[in-house]
TrEMBL record:
Organism lineage string: Bacteria, Pseudomonadati, Bacteroidota, Bacteroidia, Bacteroidales
Gene3D superfamilies: OmpA-like domain, Tetratricopeptide repeat domain
InterPro entries (alphabetical): DUF3868, OmpA-like_sf, TPR-like_helical_dom_sf
Pfam family, one: DUF3868
Name under which the protein is recorded: DUF3868 domain-containing protein
Domain of life of the native organism: Bacteria
Domain annotation DUF3868: ranges: 8-100
SUPFAM superfamilies: OmpA-like, TPR-like
């Protein structure tokens, strides 16, 4: 082909390319729509920017003397990095390329000869050292359809937008007073209709030890101070209700006195409560049982019009066989003593928090754990462990769930992050975090809508992610 004719073809293609490239950019097409870009993969893998793609040339009819040059480019606000080029030659252009025209290209160029009217795909992969400015950059393809090697008047087709969102971690509110509690259940056995406690009777030694050990651990911890102990007694429904109330109250008081003396503690720290008959426990047993008349018994248990004695006698008289089973299997478990040890915890410095995190993290506040996390690199194993511990200890706290969700997103676990965001409420910061998730999923339109919603609701930090999206 004569040089003048080659020039005319180049000019004609260049004149049409502006509109054609815009029309096909979202479809990722090059060369005025004749080349399809497929299987695009752009990722940050181990500190390297990896770009992989395929060029489908099936629709390209390339004149013998023409050469197309495609150059993937990483373009940031102030910096640019070119990647190895892709050269597609016509028949005669390929001969010239192999005879020496290739010298103007780097050694790692990907070069192919186009065989018109045949299916043909070019597989491309390239790697660059990842630099921080690439967090918010665009990967584009520059196309030189004249083989002239000059980027000035060439055209770029968008390939991939790299957007690393700002992670809006939220500092939890400080606890004015770190109140904590530990609780348990003991089955202390008393003689029938008696309130006298025999420490060595049946399984009482083990049950008493549970209560004492729970209190002792808190009492001897230098970081805690007991603020109160509650012992709550329960009786089972057999016998008149008033008698059961007397038993529950006085057995709880007897147990309290015994425990107090064993630990040599001030009586003012203790409080006694009681429930005459544990109908809640009875209902749970019946509902989970295979009693022949389970449903009928449940109807009686739930009948609030009946007083407790009437309910108990109705079950006993109507379904005596079921009642005997309940008496043997269920009623002993309804006679129990629940205990709660309330205590306060001292405030910790960051260094102290680091040590307590290893031994007894439930003593920490959310704010203390958050401040500890700030001493680690976001996304590091230590940082993520703190966030996971926080949400494990405070599973219903919106702030803990927002921070855990963001840490999981930063680690690439979007599904697990979604579980936390379901519990994060609908505060401005929760909306902001959902925008981050949308962005990481590739839905920039939804992300922008959520960022703007969060901003309007009062989260000023959302503007940072709006700015990133609007680069």
């Amino acid at each position: 082909m004569h040089t003048f004719t080659h020039y005319i073809i180049c000019c004609a293609m260049a004149l049409s390319l502006g509109q054609a490239a815009r029309a096909h950019s979202e479809a990722q097409r090059l060369a005025a729509g004749q080349v399809r870009v497929e299987n695009v993969n752009v990722s940050n893998a181990g500190g390297r920017l990896v770009v992989g793609l395929e060029l489908n040339l099936d629709s390209l009819r390339l004149p013998a003397s023409m050469q197309f040059v495609f150059t993937p480019v990483v373009r940031g606000r102030t910096q640019t990095r070119r990647m190895p080029q892709i050269v597609v030659n016509g028949r005669r252009a390929d001969i010239a390329f192999r005879r020496g025209a290739s010298k103007r290209f780097e050694a790692d160029v990907t070069a192919v000869r186009r065989k018109n009217n045949t299916p043909q795909t070019v597989t491309y992969s390239a790697v660059l050292p990842y630099e921080q400015w690439m967090d918010n950059s665009d990967v584009v393809v520059n196309e030189d359809l004249c083989g002239c090697g000059d980027f000035i008047d060439n055209h770029e087709v968008p390939l991939k937008k790299l957007r690393k969102p700002f992670m809006p971690y939220l500092r939890p509110a400080a606890e004015a007073r770190k109140d904590r509690s530990v609780q348990g259940r003991a089955y202390i056995e008393f003689p029938v209709n008696k309130t006298t406690l025999y420490p060595e009777y049946r399984n009482n030694p083990a049950e008493l030890a549970k209560i004492v050990e729970t209190i002792r651990v808190v009492k001897e911890d230098k970081n805690t101070k007991i603020s109160g102990i509650v012992i709550h007694g329960f009786a089972s429904p057999e016998s008149p209700y008033d008698h059961n109330a007397w038993l529950a109250e006085h057995r709880a008081a007897t147990l309290k006195d015994h425990v107090r003396k064993m630990l040599d503690m001030d009586n003012s720290l203790f409080r006694v409560g009681y429930t005459a008959e544990d109908w809640k426990g009875l209902r749970e047993y019946v509902a989970a049982s295979s009693l022949p008349h389970r449903d009928e018994i449940l109807q009686v248990v739930d009948d609030s019009r009946l007083d407790p004695d009437t309910r108990e006698w109705r079950i006993k008289l109507r379904w005596p066989d079921d009642y005997r089973i309940m008496l043997d299997e269920c009623y002993p478990t309804l006679r129990h003593s629940d205990y709660v040890v309330n205590y306060t915890v001292k405030a910790f410095s960051v260094d102290e928090t680091r040590e307590v995190m290893k031994t007894n993290p439930k003593l920490l506040s959310l704010e203390e754990m958050f401040l500890l996390a700030q001493t680690y690199e976001p996304g590091s194993g230590e940082f993520n462990q703190v966030m996971e511990t926080a949400v494990r200890l405070f599973p219903a706290d919106p702030t803990a769930n927002i921070n855990a969700a963001l840490a999981r997103m930063a680690s690439g676990d979007i599904d697990a992050a979604a579980d936390c965001l379901d519990k994060a409420g609908n505060t401005p910061r929760a909306i902001h975090a959902r925008g981050v998730m949308a962005l990481l999923k590739g839905d920039s339109n939804m992300a922008l809508r959520l960022f703007r919603e969060a901003l309007a609701a009062g989260d000023a930090d959302a503007q940072r992610n709006i700015d990133i999206l609007e680069l």
